[in-house]
Amino acid sequence: MTLDRAKEINSLLTHAWMVWSGIYAGEPPSLQGISLAEAEEASRVIAAHPGERLPCGRVRLTSHVHVSRVPRLYAWAVVRGQTAPAPVEEGRDA
């Protein structure tokens, strides 16, 4: 897995974690097209990555969901995404 792909998946997982924990309101982001194995691998890649080096020499660490919490969060986000109300088509009764 490339670092860019891991960052992309990590961003979605972190956003889902924020929704799950009540920090953000709304629905979690869609994890469509991302397998549980990819989500776990992304968590491992980001945990091993030292972060972003700033011009001052300090390192900004990247937030990530610990790999042990990924399966539960992943399942929650997928279920939330599948149980969201379907949009009502115009001209059809709900």
Please give a structural write-up.
The structure is a single chain. The chain has about 90 residues and is mainly alpha-helical. It has one domain. It has helices at about 5-20, 35-50, 70-80; strands spanning about 50-55, 60. Strands 1-2 form a two-stranded antiparallel ribbon. α1 crosses α2 and α1 (about 5-20) crosses α3 (about 70-80). The longest helix is centred in the N-terminal third of the chain and has 18 residues, at about 5-20. The protein starts with a helix and ends in a 12-residue tail after the last helix. The mean pLDDT is about 85.
Short recap of the structure:
It is built from three helices and two strands. The protein is mostly helical.
Oligomerization state = single chain
Distance between the termini: 43 Å
Strand residue content: under 5%
Structure summary, number of beta strands: 2
The spatial strand order of the largest sheet comes to 1-2
Q: What is the domain total for the residues?
A: 1
Mean pLDDT: 85
Shape: globular
What Rg, in angstroms, do the CA atoms define?
16 Å
Q: Tell me about the largest β-sheet.
A: 2 strands, antiparallel
- How much helix is in the residues? 40-55%
Number of helical segments with 4 or more residues: 3
Q: Report low-confidence residues grouped into runs of 5 or more.
A: none
Structural class: mainly alpha
Secondary-structure element sequence? HHEEH
